[in-house]
Amino acid sequence: MKTTILIGAGFSYDLGMPLSSDFTETFLSIYDKNSTLELEKKLSSNQPFGEGRPINRKAINEGLELILNYKNNNGKNYEELLAKLQDLEHEPRKTQSDKDSYYYLFSSLYKIIHHIFCFYQIASYQVLYPVNSKFYANFRDILNEKETWVFSLNHDNFIEMLCSDLQIPLTYGDSNRIEFPIDNRSLDKKIKLTFSYRENLSLKNSKFFSEKFGINLIKLHGGLSELEYQDKKKLCNIDIDGKSSHEIFEEFLKIDEMAYYQNGKRIPSGKDMVITNSYGELDIISKSMLTGGKKYSKTLKIQKGEEKLSLFNDVLNNTTELLILGYGFGDKHINFRIADQLAKNSNFSIRIIDPVKTKIPESFEAYDYDNRIKRAFCGAPVWFDYSKTEKWNSLQINELKKTTQYRSEIKEIVRKKLFK
């Protein structure tokens, strides 16, 4: 049996990262009548597209009211909210000014969401990773004897950290290296990145493991430590080769320090980060995190820029079982590709590991026979242990339950950073 692994938020839950509902609660806590009014005034007074394309305050207000209504109706999925905001620009009779304003508001929210994820990554690693990472010790046992493809929908760096501590070889498929100064004030302090050309993300890439034990990691929705450079042609990652989990964490922190200073002031950044290149000049590198309702196109046909999704398709074509860890089936572009594989390959099956009894997508139901869809209602580390012993470890389960206090601590740390 050749297994491919798909991981969602539940994979990192026991290490401190939030589920979608937890993250949404934290995100929405920022907004009330007063804070949205202040944000409306601030955004409306700016001219990000130049004098000829002014921001429309009415459109900004419309988007912010959408946020408040979603909060008042106890919305649980921030990505659903962002998708609603993105849909506004497609409504009839919307002007260019309206569309510019919605886009500008979305960009502002993207920046906040990215910050929150970074805050969670930092707090989780410092508070809960030292406590619970030991429960992931049997992760190695679910991997193939030869290469294992892991497709992640998460933005965090925990799978890299775990593989480092467990001495599991891992590659992004990167064959090149590049250095950037942290900023133009001290060119000798640098961050080292590896990179792949996006067009080379395929099974033909010789840097991926083939017929050799190790993980080929693809972050389908981008990541906190993955950056896009030179018009998205290059996908850059922190250099993890030979580094401990702590060193990976320290390299991750450097990304937020990347900047360019003019007249002693740091030039502001959003999704596009203003940085310093190797010549000490101003340059741009972009955050790769995908969020909202437009991560990928809505058809099975692969579009330009969707090389990761194409690779997912190609790997599934050679997969016997897709092991799904902690994914709640909230992404249609993932779901219909799994359903397509179930339809065309009778030897393909899926195994869903998640403590939440999430209903499977309707498109899967026709293939729920002959054990093609198997489920276990537990967390990822509990499954790793069961896979090795074929017994449920009640002691481990109880120990994991006791870590609720740490999650509350992490959430409070994040909230303090947001409101300071």
Explain this structure.
Helices cover 40% and strands 17% of the residues. It contains 14 helices and 15 strands. It has helices at 9-13, 20-28, 33-44, 57-72, 78-88, 96-127, 129-132, 158-165, 245-257, 307-316, 332-344, 380-389, 394-401, 404-419, and strands at residues 3-7, 147-152, 170-171, 176-181, 190-197, 214-219, 226-229, 234-238, 261-262, 265-266, 272-276, 282-287, 321-325, 349-353, 373-376. The strands form three sheets. The protein has a seven-stranded parallel sheet with strand order 3-6-2-1-13-14-15, sandwiched between helices.
Shape: globular
Task: Write down the overall mean pLDDT.
Answer: 95
- What count of helical segments does DSSP give? 14
Low-confidence stretches: none
Write the H/E string, N to C: EHHHHHHHEHEEEEEEHEEEEHEHEEHHH
Radius of gyration: 22 Å
Strand percentage, roughly?
Answer: 15-25%
Query: Helicity level, as a percent range?
Result: 25-40%
Biggest beta-sheet profile: 7 strands, parallel
Oligomeric state of this protein: single chain
Number of DSSP E strands: 15
Strand order of the largest sheet: 3-6-2-1-13-14-15
Structural class: alpha/beta
Q: State the end-to-end distance.
A: 51 Å
Protein name: SIR2-like domain-containing protein
Question: What key attributes describe this structure?
Answer:
alpha/beta; about 425 residues; 14 helices; single chain; 6-stranded antiparallel beta sheet; 7-stranded parallel beta sheet
What is this entry, summarized?
With 420 residues, this protein is α/β, with parallel strands linked by helices. 40% of the residues lie in helices and 17% in strands.
